[in-house]
Design goal:
Blueprint (H helix, E strand, L loop, with lengths): L2 H14 L9 H27 L10 H29 L2 H28 L3 H22 L15 H13 L6 H15 L8 H19 L15 H4 L19
């Protein structure tokens, strides 16, 4: 799975997650359990890899690539977390907010450890600078997406910077455009994937866990009782967008969402 695919799922979660959050289904509750298990599993693998300094089973460990993986996937953790915070507030079901807080806290802690370890261990300043630039981009994209939940203060718990998030929310309300929501989303997706490294997740177990999280996130959205059309990920022409000329297979939206 490619890091850009992870970012795409986060964007879809943010755009379509704002609808129908005043109600929930039993399938959403089961999806939430699977989301917690999968995220917890992924965080445990990251923690082991950071401790050992090498990635099983092939030992081709690169700390900068692991840091990129952790940072980009935090987009999904926070975008889905915003949905959960809002859902928990509207339905008075604390388990939604509790899962959001646990996943966010654990993910944030590991991201800070990865960056700290990279800054301490690398002899190349360029690696640390590149990772910090990626973090800054991720922070701003996250706050932009979370700002779509501007009607709820609960969603701000998922933001990096609450003030910046509120500024983005003001922009949403004040902008005058003839673009349809679908066109706006496509434009944002095009800009988003260019900001994210065009990199495959090399660790097969980690990649499968990311793919599982993506399916669970979409399954959670599609299980909203009021949703009539299932959410899918638009096909993105990576050869055009990557500007690198390297092939990268898009996340396959032709496969049905897995039942959890």
């Amino acid at each position: 799975m490619n890091l850009r695919s992870v970012a795409e799922v986060a964007a879809i979660t943010a755009w379509y997650g704002v609808d129908g959050l005043e109600e929930y289904s039993s399938h959403q509750q089961s999806s939430l359990t699977e989301y917690w298990k999968t995220t917890r599993f992924l965080c445990q693998r990251w923690a082991r890899q950071l401790r050992s300094g090498e990635s099983a089973p092939n030992h081709n460990f690169r700390l900068d690539q692991l840091a990129e993986e952790i940072i980009v996937s935090e987009l999904l953790t926070r975008c889905l977390g915003a949905n959960l915070f809002v859902l928990g507030e509207l339905t008075s079901q604390p388990e939604f907010s509790q899962i959001a807080k646990r996943t966010l806290t654990e993910h944030t802690t590991l991201r800070e450890k990865a960056i700290s370890k990279l800054e301490q261990s690398t002899n190349r300043v360029s690696n640390a600078l590149r990772i910090n630039r990626l973090l800054r981009k991720t922070e701003r994209w996250t706050d932009l997406f979370v700002s779509r939940h501007s009607a709820s203060d609960a969603a701000l718990e998922a933001a990096f910077d609450c003030e910046r998030c509120l500024d983005f929310a003001d922009d949403w309300h004040m902008q005058k455009t003839i673009e349809t929501p679908a066109v706006s989303l496509q434009l944002q997706m095009s800009a988003l994937v260019l900001a994210i490294p065009n990199q495959e997740i090399n660790d097969a177990v980690n990649a499968q866990a990311h793919e599982n999280r993506a399916h669970i996130a979409l399954s959670f959205l599609n299980a909203t009782p009021s949703r009539k059309q299932p959410v899918s990920i638009p096909q993105v022409q990576r050869m055009i967008l990557s500007c690198s000329g390297s092939e990268s297979r898009p996340f396959n939206d032709s496969q049905p969402t897995r039942e959890m």
